[in-house]
Amino acid sequence: MAEARCMKCRTQVEIQNPEEVINARGLKMIKGNCGACNTKVCRIVGKA
Ligand SMILES: [Zn+2]
């Protein structure tokens, strides 16, 4: 289960529909939605 900091809730939340992506800088991230407010959240996991 992945967690990320939600900007709206200002707390650590569980990522809904987590999806692993590699961003432009080559960092692996998990992105999804906040379980509480449905705002997009993402978490950097590490280098790809
Ligand atoms: Zn939230």
Architecture overview:
By secondary structure, this protein is an all-beta fold. The protein has one domain. The chain is built from no helices and four strands. The chain has a four-stranded antiparallel β-sheet with strand order 1-2-3-4, with no helix packed on it. Zinc ion binds at residues 6, 8-9, 13, 34, 36-37, 39.
Instruction: Describe the strand arrangement of the main beta sheet, using strand numbers.
Output: 1-2-3-4
Beta-strand proportion? over 45%
- Give the low-confidence spans: none
Helical segment count:
0
For the sheet with most strands, the description reads: 4 strands, antiparallel
> What class do helices, strands and sheet pairing give?
mainly beta
Mean pLDDT reading: 93
Q: SSE order in H/E notation?
A: EEEE
Tell me roughly what share of residues is in helical segments.
under 10%
Radius of gyration: 10 Å
Instruction: Identify the bound ligands.
Output: zinc ion
Distance between the termini: 20 Å
The number of domains is: 1
Label the overall shape: elongated
- Strands, count: 4
Give the secondary structure arrangement, pairings included.
Elements: E1 3-6, E2 11-22, E3 27-34, E4 40-47
Features:
48 residues, mainly beta, 4-stranded antiparallel β-sheet, 4 strands, elongated, binds zinc ion
